Amino acid sequence: MKKKSLFSLLTLIVMLVVLAACGSKVNKNGVPNILKDKYTGYSKLSGYEYPFIAGGDQLIFDKKENSITNSKGDKTYFSVIPEKDLPPATKGVVTSLKSELKDTENFTIIISREKHPTKKQAEATYQIALSAGGKKIRVIELRRDYAAEGGYYDFSGESE
Fold first, then answer.
1. Helix or strand or coil: residue 115?
2. Helix H segments across the chain?
3. pLDDT band at 18 (very low <50, low <70, confident <90, very high)
4. Signal peptide position in this chain (predicted)?
5. Please, are residues 83 and 93 in contact by the beta-carbon 8 Å criterion?
6. 75-102: buried (b, 16+ CB within 10 Å) or exposed (e) per residue?
């Protein structure tokens, strides 16, 4: 009888662990699990920083090291930042995009040449919007204090 109870308890524990792991929407770095490894797409304008270039491009996301690499091999590191930690100007841009972000799984990242960048090391901020279960992506530059080319980086792509 004790063996049966112990076996039932162990089975229940294993099931709870498996369910908890499957139910997680984000990894330990705050990156949604539906983010795919590669997206091919287009942005009319380049971003202020690499690796975000104008024209057709492929963005490769490495969720283990939190990096983004473009088709030319330019790499940057990113960290997910909660909306509550955004500066007021950046939060205002995100708010202005709410209607465009509706029905997407979206999150804000800061980028830097440093691994696991902090807010102090941030070179820029971007909004990532995922749709169709992560098969489609939109990467929107949140910097609004320049418009050298008359606009901002706005990449739309699909996973392979």
1. coil
2. 2-23, 88-96, 98-101
3. very low
4. 1-20
5. no
6. ebbbbbbeeeebeeebbebbeebeeebe
Long-range contacts formed by 27-31: CB under 8 A, 24+ apart:
27/63, 29/63, 29/66, 29/79, 29/80, 30/79, 30/80, 30/82, 30/107, 31/63, 31/66, 31/80, 31/107
Q: Residue 35: which pLDDT band, with cuts at 50, 70 and 90?
A: very high
Locate 77 and state its tokens.
């590191």
Under DSSP, is residue 157 helix (H, G, I), strand (E, B) or coil? strand
